[in-house]
Amino acid sequence: MDEDKPLLNIGEVNAVKTNINTSVNVTDQTGLSGFGNAADKLAGTATGLVQRICYPAAEEFGLMLGDSFGDFRRRNFEAIAKRAKKNIEESHPGEDVSAPPRLIASVIEKGSWEDDQFVQDLWAGLLSSSCTEEGDDDSNLLFINILANLTKLQAHILNHACIHAKKIIGSSGVTFCMDLRINLKEYGDEIGEKDFHRLDREIDNLRSSGLLTPESSVEINNKKGVANVTPSTLGLHMFVRCQGSRIAPYEYFKGAPEIITGPCNSS
What we know:
The chain has helices spanning 10-23, 33-39, 44-53, 58-68, 71-91, 101-111, 117-129, 141-148, 152-164, 184-191, 196-208, 233-242, 249-253, and strands at 167-169, 175-177, 181-183, 217-218, 226-228, 259-261.
């Protein structure tokens, strides 16, 4: 290469500058304009929500959403953001709340692959319940990682179990559940899953994940195909957070007809 010859002359440099200025929004301070332009109106709620609950990292999220996401993931995260926005407005009317960037990044990265509306609602619940006035509570990271590894069927089973199991609130406020048994054929017909062996696998995995009690399983000696699907205390906490609430399970379920209050222990 001739070292005395410039790589670009002045005219070429100006042409490059002009091209850059016409292709990049140099006034964008957050990095989110590319996301908004690419997805047009689709990304409006997602952009606004990210700016609201995590402004310091908005530029990084803008680059992630604009450069790494196609239409499929943008649509999914937009659906999650719409529901989360509604949850936040209902639980924190007029309040400024935020969430740790690490949690928001995890929800964006993992939740945006989910196109099932029911599971998207769970992601929205976790995103909204991650928000506090202080913005420094990372406790939902546990539930984000769990949800990312659940199948749609497992999410439905846990949701059904947490709604229908009778709760016991101990004097300490810790909430447990009485045994809940379901007929697998009837439940499978209800949710459209007729594979008995898959239901068995999913319940076993929920138990090993700690979301159902150690006793939960398909009862092999029961010819009617009955399964114990009793939620653990961890499962109840996850259920509540996925509803967009940060209160303890005993407060969430307080007053429900299936509640039993009194001294108890976990044994």
